[in-house]
Amino acid sequence: MTGRVLILSWEYPPVVEGGLGRHVRKLSEELVRQGVEVHVLTRGDQAQELRAGVHVHRVCEPPFPHDLDRFLAWVRSMNHDMRRAGLALARDFDFDLVHGHDWLVARAAATLSTSLRIPFLATIHATEHGRHQGWVDKPPQSTIHATERWMARRADGLVTCSHYMRGHAADVFDVEEDAISVIPNGIDPDDLQPVGDLDALRARYARPDERLVLLVGRLVYEKGFQFALEALPAVIRRVPNLRFVVAGSGTHEQELRAQAQRLGVAEHGTFAGWIGDDMLHSLYRIADLCVVPSLYEPFGLVALEAMASGCPCIVANTGGLAEVAPSDDVALRFRSRDPSSLARMMNKVLTDDELRDRLVAQASEHVLRFDWSDVARQTREVYGRLIGAHAPVEETPTGVGTLSSEPR
Are 4-186+372-389 and 189-368 equal in CATH topology? Predict the structure, then answer.
């Protein structure tokens, strides 16, 4: 499929809240290289620009709210603005398909699909049900979950980043697995370049004779960092010259700091707070081990980035991580939520240089499977199937598909 697509995303560089914006950028740019004309509708200051061949259109936004209830109203307003902007664009361009990323843009994407009589493809990057271990019966989680469920049933096609997520989405939203395409996230090792003096950065966190363990991600419960901290005392007894750095911020940060104090490991580590990509890529290069202890992980990009950077990994045997690290040849796996299992794996890697070297060598080959050109090719195939099979949809009944109401 070549043609012209309209992609909706609530973030796109330089507006970046997390991994979604980076994913949409890399996918969009590779689609352009493969002959697709890509227009991205997102938010930000500059109204229109051409970035690496991608036509980026931005809607202005009010100040970003940090209260979740106000955030939901902010999302509704953004969708209204995106819908209007998308309809204006459609006066100048004939789009073949609209591709929305996650629930944050589902309302606008679905309405544009209906108005323009083109298919709607939705990529589900994560779910509220998964993030909160099924506790989605009360607002605001119930509102987000209902929107996700509505999106999954309204879309003409769905994409998830792993087979785990396909089964999860089918179960949670009661849709057929056959309707969901699995297309993994991609990785470009050229994007993982470190900056600055790595020796000086390493000295900031550990001495030359110390082992440095990296924990990186949003500091929220589902990322499982509490279990990694609980594993540390047993590891330090075996590897007393251990240091750790926690890179990231989030609602669980103060609790994690307090836990480190209670466990007596705080003096062995540093909570670095939020870090930019350049700093993260550098940390991958100086760490002796990266631990990804997630309870819920749709894919596992941190593990993939660490492996591509030459940093050995230990991952929880859960979710998409089991697909990113399908065997102990590329990364060791431990039982999720089991600190003793994690401690044993950490001791293995930190005390066995031959094992570490083998993991690094095998992982460097494994990551080549997650190539953005292949991700874009698979995405184009999904586009082609949907466009070929699409019949114009009727207007969605008021109260279900309109931007002015929440899903029932």
Answer: yes
What's the pLDDT tens digit per position in 204-213? 999 999 999 9
Q: Which residue, chain included where needed, has tokens 């031959």?
A: 354
When pLDDT is averaged across residues 226-237 and rounded to a whole number, the result is 98
> In this structure, which topology does domain 4-186+372-389 adopt according to CATH?
Rossmann fold (3.40.50)
Burial environment of residue 344 by CB neighbours within 10 A (0 to 12, 13 to 18, 19 or more): middle
Tens digit of each residue's pLDDT (9 = 90 or more) over 341-386: 999 999 999 999 999 999 999 999 999 999 999 999 999 999 999 9
Q: Is 354 exposed, middle or buried (0-12, 13-18, 19+ CB in 10 A)?
A: exposed
Which tokens hold the place of 7? Answer: 């992609």
First to last CA, the chain: 35
Neighbours of 220 (CB within 10 A): 18
The larger pLDDT score, comparing residue 159 to residue 299, is at 159
CA–CA dist 188, 330 (Å, integer) = 18
- Over residues 3-14, mean pLDDT: 95
**Domains of the chain by residue range:** 4-186+372-389, 189-368
The CATH number corresponding to 189-368 among 3.40.50.300, 3.40.50.2000, 2.60.120.10, 3.30.310.50 equals: 3.40.50.2000
Give the model's pLDDT for residue 401. 36
pTM for the structure as a whole: 0.87
58-96 residue pLDDT tens: 999 778 887 777 899 999 999 999 999 999 999 999 999
Residue 99 bridge partners (DSSP)? 7, 121
62 class by beta-carbon count within 10 Å (0-12 exposed, 13-18 middle, 19+ buried): exposed
